[in-house]
Amino acid sequence: MGPLQGMKVLDASQIMAGPYCTMVLADLGAEVMKVEKVNGGDDSRQMGPYVNGESTCFFQINRNKKSIALNLKTNEGKEIFYQLAKEADVVVENYRPGVTKSLGIDFENLKKINPGLVYCSISGYGQTGPYSHKGGFDLVAQGMTGLMSMTGEKGMRPMKSGIAVYDIGAGITAAYSILAAFIHKMKTGEGQHVDIALAEIGLPWFTWEAGAYFAEGTIPEATGWRHRVSAPYQAVKTKSGYMMLGCANQRTWERFCEDVAEKPEWLTDPRYKTNLLRNTHVSELEEDIEAVLMHQDTRHWIDLCEKAGVPAGPINNFAEAVQDPHYEARGMIQEVEHPLIGKMKMIGIPAKFSKTPGEVKTPSPLFGQDTIEVLNGLGYDEDSIRNLTKSGAVKTLEEKPILNKK
C-alpha cells in the first residue's frame, strides 16, 4: 500500500509532462482517473512503436491509471467531469492557458464545487507573463533557458539533451508541488492553484552556472564531455572505448595518480596541483591521462578505480544500462502483462520506502476501458450510457458489459 493511498487524482493531461506526474502519484498509491478526449484519446496513443496496435510510448508512462473518454465540449461530458472533480483531491491539466476556461473546467470554476481542490496546470510558459499564450515544447524550453548553448562541443551546432529533460522535469516538479499543496490542504482544508511552466523548471538546476554568471558575468559555454568546474571529471578514452572518471576533489585525484595511473609525479606538476589549475589545463591533463589509459581496456581501469575509491563507471548504451544487474536487483526494470501488448518491460519506481513502497499494479489502460465502470459508479444506467455514447459525449469499450440496468 503506497503512501498516497486514498488520494484521488483527475488527470486531464496528455503526452508526457502531465502523465509522468500522475504516474508518479499513481505509483505511490494515488487513485488516478485519466480523462481522454473521445477522438483518439491521449495524443501519445498515436506515437509508435506499436505492439498489436497499442502505443508503447503511452504504455511507459500511464500505468496504474484508469481511463475514461469524455467530450468536454458537450454539456453531458462536462457534467460528468464536474461530478468526478467534486470527489477529487487533485486535478492535473496541461492545456494551453485559456483553454480550460473556455471549456469551463478551470480552477475558478472547479473550486466552486470543490473548495479543497488542488489544481495543477502544466504549460509551456505558465499562466501569467508575456509568453503565457504560447504553446510549450521541451526542445523550445531547452533553447530558451540556455541549456542547448551549454550542451555539446564548443563552437559546434547547439545540441539538445538526449532525453525530454524538461517534460520529465516538469512532471517531477508538478508532483512534489502537488504534494506540498496537498499537505497544506490536509492542515487547512484549503485548495489552491499550482502553476508549473516548462520554461522555468530547469533554471534552478543551473547552480554552478548561476554562481559564475551572477558573481563574474561569466556566460557558460558548451564543455562537451568535460565538467564545467572540476577536472578530471569527464569521459576519457581507454584501449577498448570510453569511461567516466570523476576526480571531483583533491583526495580522489591523489588516489587516482598514486593507485590507478601510477603517476605520482602528477601530484607535483605545477599544472595539476589544484582543481582550478587542472581545469585550466584540462586539455593537457586529458592527453596525459589517456596516454596511460590506452594501455588497458575499460574494465581494467574501472576495477582499479573502484579498488582505490575513485568514482568511475562505464558509458553504457540504453540496452546495456537496463540490463545492468544493479538495476535489476533494485527493481528498476519491471514487467507487466498488458491485454493487447502482452508481456512488456518498463522502467520501475526510483523511490524506495521502508514502510509504504510504491507498486506497479496495472499496465496502462486501454482507451476508455473504465468509462462504463465510472459512469456506473456515478449512478448512470444502461440507457443513459448508451445515449451518452450515441451523442458522442463519452466513448466506451464496446465489449465491456454495462451494469446498473433498469
Give structural notes.
It is a single chain. With 406 residues, this protein is of the alpha/beta class. It has two domains: 8-203 and 328-369, 3-Layer(aba) Sandwich (Rossmann fold); 233-315, formyl-coa transferase, domain 3. The chain contains 18 helices and 14 strands. The chain has a seven-stranded mixed beta sheet with strand order 8-7-6-1-2-5-14, sandwiched between helices. Helix 1 (17-27) crosses helix 8 and helix 11 crosses helix 14. The longest helix is centred in the middle third of the chain and has 24 residues, at 165-188. The two termini are 36 Å apart. 37% of the residues are buried.
Task: Give the secondary structure arrangement, pairings included.
Layout lengths: L7 E5 L4 H11 L3 E7 L12 E2 L2 E2 H6 L3 E6 L4 H13 L2 E4 L5 H5 L3 H7 L4 E6 L14 H7 L2 H4 L14 H24 L3 E6 H4 L5 H10 L16 E5 L4 E5 L3 H11 L14 H6 L1 H12 L4 H11 L3 E3 L3 H5 L2 H5 L3 E6 L3 E6 L23 H7 L4 H10 L2 E2 L11
Parallel strand pairs: 1-2, 1-6, 2-5, 6-7, 7-8
Antiparallel strand pairs: 3-4, 5-14, 9-10, 10-11, 12-13
Helix pairs in contact: 1-8, 11-14
* CATH H-level homologous superfamily name of the largest domain: Crotonobetainyl-coa:carnitine coa-transferase, domain 1
Taken from the alpha-carbon principal axes, the silhouette is elongated
Number of strands: 14
Indicate the structural class.
alpha/beta
Strand content: 15-25%
- With helices defined by DSSP (H or I, 4 residues minimum), what is the helix count? 18
Give me the side-by-side strand order of the main sheet.
8-7-6-1-2-5-14
Oligomerization status of the protein chains: single chain
GO molecular function: transferase activity
Keywords: Transferase
Enzyme class: transferase
InterPro entries: CoA-transferase_III_domain, CoA-Trfase_fam_III, CoA-Trfase_III_dom3_sf, CoA-Trfase_III_dom_1_sf
